[in-house]
Amino acid sequence: MNGTFSSLLLLLAVAVILVWLFRRIKLPAILAYLVAGIIAGPDVMGWIADPDDYHLVAELGIVLLLFSLGLEFSLPKMIAMRRWVFGLGAAQVLGSLLIFLLIGFIWLDEWAASLAIAGALALSSTAVVIKQLKESAQTSTRRGQMSVAILLFQDIAVVPLLIIIPLLASDDGNIGYTLLLALAKGAAVIAVLMTIGKWVLPYLFKEIAKQRTDELFVLATLLVALVAGGMTHIFGLSMALGAFLAGMMLGESQYKHQLEADIRPFRDILMGLFFTTIGMQLQLYGFVQNLHWILLALVIMAVIKIALISSVARLMGERDEDAWGSGISLFQMGEFGFVIVALASSHGLLSKEIITSMIGIGVLSMAITPIAIHRLKPLVNLVVRHPDPLVDIEQQRTTGNEGLENQVLICGFGRVGQTMSRFLDAEGITHIAVDNDPMRVQEAVAGGARVYFGDSSRRDILRAVGAEKVDLIIISFADDLRALDVLKELRQLNPEAYIIVRSKDDMRLTQLQEAGASQVVPDTLEASLMLISHVLNRSGIPIRRILARLDKERRNHYGEMHGFFQGSETDMDPELPDKLEFLRALTLPEGAWANGKRIDELDWEKHQVQLKALRRDDEEFPNPDSDIELQSQDVVLLVGKPRYVEAAERWLLEG
């Protein structure tokens, strides 16, 4: 069982079991991958003798992660965030480098080794932090955006560090010239990538999209991400930076959501492999022997980075909650720290004991990070005296919904759920929604909707949003098996509620009713009723007779409509995204072009979008007055077709 295939098969088997087990006990999957790597590594089972054999494949996970991140951060956003990226990010990296360098020199009395250690400790984990921010729906929060901005500068700072360390080891006198030459090459390749991304890639994906072939779209996405990463790698930059730039350019196109959906399975699998390779590098004997020193170093590193980030952020005028939240999120050592340690080791700058301790610090800090980010709000509230306004679901429910009557719970906030929410708002009926899509929740919350992230089939989530006290509950997603799970939990909490369930068809109508559904609304049958009502109306049938006929069918649970002749294309969805109007909530950052301009000064019609609402300081203004001036941190709710909304976003940010 020493062959490459057998080793990989055993590693995957252990990973599957551990991920299942860790998710069952509510622990992040990243911890499972780290443990799987430790088990499969040379110090335990020895299935994989040399973790470097899988280094390239694992690095592709980081490349795809940065590509998907780039899709969410367009160039106008990067320019608008320059204060955080090049202000807060630069202060964190340079400040951490200086402090860790002095500590390392006092300890080792060697500048080269101290710089390698300082560089590794100053960088945080892009892979872990971004993944956890996404899972906990915090990427759109101010603290989340600050964390991402710092991580972006750290990825840029890796480049000179990877150049300087070998030069220090070789004791070459031309360090300055070599560094300037490398930076010039980097600027050139970045300019080339941005040009290609701006003018070539949108045309390329437009032609590929016309072919309507999923495989071709996926292959093209992978090719673009890897080619961009390869180009920056050839010029001495990190592959992750090239992939990020390519994603950022494509993030301005109408294909961004499809690109992210296509890349996600490959990204998640390769990221899992990356974390297993990190676990393989941990030498258990040396780790246990030096555990007390590793824990001390981890605490010192965390205190310095948290204090530095929070202090600089507060000096820049950020709220205490956001400053501390960003600092706590970035306390760990990152994946590029392992790269720097490996590079310093190959040039003989670090001893084996120091290398083992550094890997131990990295693995342990990365293992703690998912727990810290998922518990970020309680941790922030420990150091901030006044409570964080971004409180938990349970706190929001108990403090914000007291005295409300006729409240409705919507499980699922897709298109149907959002439509119901708008009609309920129009009638003044208070309601709350739960959805398990973090991106959708972020957009909806930014637009002023009362929706929370969570799986509505989990009893603790339903209890947190007050399902046991709601009179009317709507399950708005057309997934019968999932709806059955939700119904089971709802009826345990609230036997008396009237529950309306949306279903795709009538295949599980009886099953849903027996599970506790008060009313089941099948999409296909309701569409048939709407069509026949139009036909009867055009045929001269009185409207009262039509309404009575429809009501009879619904009360009879569509008794005369069951059964149909199934065709080969029955389930095909005919809707095309470009024929739909989308809502988009955009937060205006500092430096946005539209800041300070009145609403009537902006030509909304020219950009073929409408300003549906404006949110400022948690207060919503539907159809705002034309003389209102836009300000930093205003949330504008735009409505229009996808490509026009994307273009309008760039217009508001950069003019």
Describe the 3D structure.
The chain is α/β, with parallel strands linked by helices and 655 residues long. The chain has three domains: 4-382, Na+/H+ antiporter like fold; 392-517, NAD(P)-binding Rossmann-like Domain (Rossmann fold), CATH 3.40.50; 582-654, Regulator of K+ conductance, C-terminal domain (Alpha-Beta Plaits, 2-Layer Sandwich), CATH 3.30.70. Helix content is 63%, strand content 7%. It has helices at residues 4-24, 29-40, 55-72, 75-80, 82-108, 111-122, 126-135, 142-170, 175-199, 201-210, 214-234, 239-250, 256-280, 284-289, 291-315, 320-329, 335-346, 352-374, 376-383, 393-400, 415-426, 438-446, 459-464, 480-493, 509-515, 523-538, 543-555, 642-654, and strands spanning 408-411, 431-435, 451-453, 472-475, 498-503, 519-522, 582-587, 610-616, 619-622, 635-640. α2 packs across α13 (256-280), α16 (320-329) crosses α19 and α17 packs antiparallel against α18. The radius of gyration is 27 Å and the shape is globular. It starts with a helix and ends with a helix.
Give the secondary structure arrangement, pairings included:
Blueprint: H1 4-24, H2 29-40, H3 55-72, H4 75-80, H5 82-108, H6 111-122, H7 126-135, H8 142-170, H9 175-199, H10 201-210, H11 214-234, H12 239-250, H13 256-280, H14 284-289, H15 291-315, H16 320-329, H17 335-346, H18 352-374, H19 376-383, H20 393-400, E1 408-411, H21 415-426, E2 431-435, H22 438-446, E3 451-453, H23 459-464, E4 472-475, H24 480-493, E5 498-503, H25 509-515, E6 519-522, H26 523-538, H27 543-555, E7 582-587, E8 610-616, E9 619-622, E10 635-640, H28 642-654
Parallel strand pairs: 1-2, 1-4, 2-3, 4-5, 5-6
Antiparallel strand pairs: 7-10, 8-9, 8-10
Helix pairs in contact: 1-2, 2-13, 3-7, 3-11, 3-12, 3-13, 5-6, 5-8, 5-15, 6-8, 6-17, 7-8, 7-18, 8-9, 8-16, 8-17, 9-12, 10-11, 11-12, 15-16, 15-18, 16-19, 17-18, 26-27
